[in-house]
Design goal:
single chain; mainly alpha; globular
Length: 296
Amino acid sequence: MMGTLNNAVRLLAKRPSILVMTIILSTIAGIAETLFITLFYGISMFKTGSPFDAYINIIQFLVGAMLVPQTAAIVILVLVILVVATALIFGLLLSGYFNMLNNAVQDRAKKEGSEFMAGVKKYFLRMISLNLWTLSIIILFVIYAFIASIPAAIFLDNAFSGAINVFAGILLSVITLLVLFFSFAFLRQYLVFWYPSALTYDRNHFKIAKKISDKNFWTLLSKFIIFDITLLIFDSIYVIANFSLANAQIVSGATTSILLIINIIFKTVFIALQVCFVFYSFNRCNDKYKALSKAK
């Protein structure tokens, strides 16, 4: 992990402007997370029954709503608009941001003019395409994860109520979690490597990203797990702090702002480290991939 930190510091020293975009991304993530926590806390105030009952009820509500043609049409239309808008906005931001980062990773000397604008001119349309695919895949994976976890939620609810053996419910839950985890692990590594691959290769960038990811899957996974655990610990503390203050009725604009600033600072460091890790790892693994390709 120290190597990842050293590489990130080295890259940021070459291109300090990378931090500006990281702060923008972390601010967006922090505000979105705060809004989600507020919404979740409001829903939890009216929660009845076990958490598994609530989960099943939410799924049933969503499925019931989507079976109504008018509602389904509105939801799909809104979702399409949000996906396209997000792909366009982040196509603009990421094309310039990733170009600066990729140049730093490749040890390219900084040329005259804006690297950000040069990246927008060269990669904007490509980033829009990648974003559309990525967002669509993520939405499908979320739907798949929700559906796949329904049997485990039902079994656990019945197990804790004494209707079936507790061991059976726990065993099914563990199997479900393992399947979802490795599905997510493969998907994440393919998607995150797709972006540096798209900046390195003009054609077949997903195919190359997949090959490189497959050859280095376990090494990369061990590093990603460290990131996951770090993020999980911080977010758990952050959510508990928000809920505790809300339950104690001492939430104010000042405390909310302080927590948000802490979250943004952490997310800025976290995103910078992880993005630098992805691009640096891809560059290193890509060198090995090209060496092997030439040797064949």
